[in-house]
Amino acid sequence: MSGMLALAKRNTLCYLRDRQSVLFSLMAVLIVVLLYLLFLRDILISSYPEMDGMPHLIDAWVMAGILGIVPVTASAGSLQTMVEDRVSGRDRDIAVTPLSRWEVVGGHVLSTFASGLVMSLIALVICLAYLVAVGCPLSAAGVAECIVLLVPSALTGSVIVYAMVSFIRSTGAFSGFFTVVSVMIGFLSGIYMPMGTMPEAMQVVGTLVPASQMAALFREALCSEALGDVFSGAPADVLEGFRTDMGFDLALGGFEFSAVASLVYSLAVTALFMAIAVMAVRRSGRCSRNCQADDADLEVMFAHTTIHVSDFDKSLTFYTEGIGLPVASVFEAGPGRRIAMLGERDGMHLEIIGDGDGGVDYPCISIGFYVKGAGELAARLDPGFRGPISPSPGVTFYFVRDPDGYCVQLLEG
Length: 413
What we know:
alpha+beta, 2,3-Dihydroxybiphenyl 1,2-Dioxygenase, domain 1, 2 domains
């Protein structure tokens, strides 16, 4: 569990410290704000010229829509670290730690959820500050409801986006996916244009998107006071038409979504995509050994040199600041055990393992190779070999001694 939390912390910090990644993950929000300020606000307000207080209602409507899409775009941006790990080979470094494959998945999902939740909370604070500044009426109950809705909204966005990104294996494909998601989510959730103005087929697709369901819930919570002020005394059919056109009330095939139905539907779709992600993880586990090198005909490939150290921080400083090796990754692999991979991200690595009070006889050095038929080779090279050792599904290795007693790690690959 501690290793999973460490991985989640590392991924979250990588995302939040990358200012460009954070900025681009808010691309859809920036598009909404620009369109709203330049075009949409005046057009929407002029559509209801006889309604007093309509500017406040439209302001709250847009802010609620933004809260619905932020978890999706933030989740997509935060998963860039996972894709870069795959491209650079750092995922293989993580795979040989005691972390199980499911702990690695949990670390990625947890970090994506945390990033989406943090960015959603920041967006909520900004939206509320804007609405208060322009004098939009708000209720304490509505604000509290928005805060509660941030959790299922971030969970839904993180799991669904993770399931889709789990099939991506290159930074180019991820960039294309990210651009499409950032642009389309604004349309499908009824923010760039109201639901009622979309073609019927697009309305159906938009209703099926969980972000639209969450946006409708945010609208109900954030716009309730302004909606009541604007339509007080107005005919019921006028209010009903406005709610339908503006995406407050969603329906599909004659079924009208209540607040509970929208929430249940969103969580059900989340569970479905989680199942898809599980299948993708199992599939990657089966093929991971065949993906260690671009050339499938290679019989052996150097993996890393491993040294066990008594003082992790001192050794890390020696090899990075002293020798000048770049840091590919640093992570925790259980209580008291820290691992650093040093070297170019797509090249050979020096692996430093800090065992704490692990009782290792120093110096302790081993050399790792990816080989085909690791078990048979280990038995042939050293009758006293150790293994098989499988710290996580899809990762198996053996230890043998060379003629001079040096430890050699043979990873199945």
